Amino acid sequence: VKDGPNPDDIKAAEARVAAAESTLSLGWLESPFAGTVTGAVPKVGDYVSANTSGFRIDDLSELLVKVDISEVDINRVELGQKVELSFDAIIGETYHGEVVEVSDVGKDTGGGVDFEVTLEILDADNLVRPGMTAAVNIVVSEIKDALIVPNRAIRLRNGQRVVYLLKDNRLEAIEVV
Fold first, then answer.
1. Which of 48, 62, 89, 176 fits a disulfide with 54 by CB distance 3.0 to 4.6 angstroms?
2. Under a CB-based contact definition with an 8 Å cutoff, are residues 80 and 104 in contact?
3. How far apart (Å, rounded) are the C-alpha atoms in residues 137 and 97?
């Protein structure tokens, strides 16, 4: 006892601890990334084998929406463009986001070619959940200092689009630019 523990006893104890830890680890599934379990397929007592989905884990720290954009419109979509999103399940709320990825390769849909575009929701709250249906508007251009008038106010005169403005109690046709 005065010379300390026997080195062989220490190695044997360390081996027993390692074996116990190894046996214990067989009862655990480990995710390759941090997240929230949002779905569980197996029930207590089921066996989960390699290459079989057991749980769904989502990283809820950033929410992404994937949309298909027609080849007719894809060249107007760029990284960083602003996006407005609304959800069928969240009445009266509009969320904001931006384009974070545009696929370089399209996929044939039978009626044309679509390109996958990934959007990040920047101001999501706890009402927005993975799997919800979103309506998306991508802002491809903005016109500053422009007057907005209803479509019904625009008239066609001599091949030009005009709106009528009341000046000095008479209507004056102003060309729409």
1. 48
2. no
3. 10
Residue 58's identity, in one-letter code, is D
Cα distances from 137 to residues 61, 77, 86, in angstroms, run 23, 11, 9
pLDDT digits (tens, 9 = 90+) for 4-39: 888 888 899 999 999 998 888 777 777 888 888 888
SS3 142: coil
- Structure pTM? 0.61
CA distances to 72, 110, 145, 169 from 83, in Å: 19, 27, 20, 43
Neighbouring residues of 1: CB distance < 8 A, sequence distance ≥ 6: none
CA 107 to CA 114: how far, in whole Å?
Answer: 5
Residue with tokens 């008479």: 170
Are 98 and 122 in contact, with CB atoms under 8 Å apart?
yes
Residues in the chain: 177
Distance of CA 37 to the CA centre of its chain: 18
Contact assessment for residue 54 and residue 38, using Cβ atoms and an 8 Å cutoff:
no
What token pair was written down for 1?
Answer: 């006892």
SS (H, E, C) 29-62: CCCCCCCEEEEECCCCCCCCCCCCCCEEEECCCC
Of 85, 98, 62, which Cα lies nearest the Cα of 132?
85
